[in-house]
Amino acid sequence: MRKVVFITAPDGFRDEEYCKPKQVLEKSGVKVITASTKIGELIGRFGFKTTSSLLIENIVPDDFDAIVYVGGGGANIFFDNPHALKLANVFFEKNKPVASICIAGVILANSGILKGKKATVFLDGKESLLKGGAIYTGTSLEIDGNIITANGPEPAEAFGKAILKAITNCSCAPFS
Question: Fewest CB atoms less than 10 Å from the CB: which of 11, 27, 156, 176?
């Protein structure tokens, strides 16, 4: 069974940027694990509640096929979080999909993995992407190698489908 970890803020994440990709993945038999800076209940911007069962610092990249950074205003707690930045690099180096939606693209830019890569982000994050060396496209969804970025809630379902396609076609070994 394929497994994906969603990095989600304890509060203020964008509900549909979490829910829609998760639904796409789970409908296809992918197990989604939610990780955050705390264990327990997480609350989205519009009141959606989910549960984190894993602390970000305890994520073992070899246990997952991909990592997804969920957007929304709360994602700013990960912009300079050493665990979030290191995980992006480790997944990238292992050629596993690294995905971000909305403002969470700033995390990827700050990790250094976007240098020379096409990427998109919520408009507020454009300067951070450029500073991080990304080729900012402004499109709703961008895929460059094993990096998948989306610019906000509208492409959330397409974002989920892109992640699904990436883990189905990735060169990483499947996990059981």
Answer: 176
Which tens digit of pLDDT belongs to each residue from 117-151? 999 999 999 999 999 999 999 999 999 999 999 99
Pairing of strands 141-144, 147-150: antiparallel
**Which pair of structure tokens corresponds to residue 76?**
């700013």
- HSE of 154, CA atoms in CB hemisphere, 13 A: 6
Number of neighbouring beta carbons within 10 Å of residue 123: 13
Using CA atoms, how far apart are residues 74 and 62, in angstroms rounded to an integer? Answer: 27
Q: Tell me the CA distances in angstroms from 2 to 64, 82, 165, 166, one per residue in order.
A: 7, 26, 12, 11
Q: Give the distance, in angstroms, between the CA of residue 13 and the centroid of all CA atoms in the same chain.
A: 12
Provide the pLDDT for residue 170. Answer: 52
- pLDDT tens per residue, range 44-100: 999 999 999 999 999 999 999 999 999 999 999 999 999 999 999 999 999 999 999
Return the structure tokens found at 95: 């050629």
3-169, which class in CATH?
Answer: alpha beta
Domain boundaries of the chain, sorted by first residue: 3-169
Helices and strands per DSSP (H, E), number in the chain: 5, 12
Question: Across the strands, what pairs with 78?
Answer: none
How many CA within 13 A on the CB side of residue 8? 33
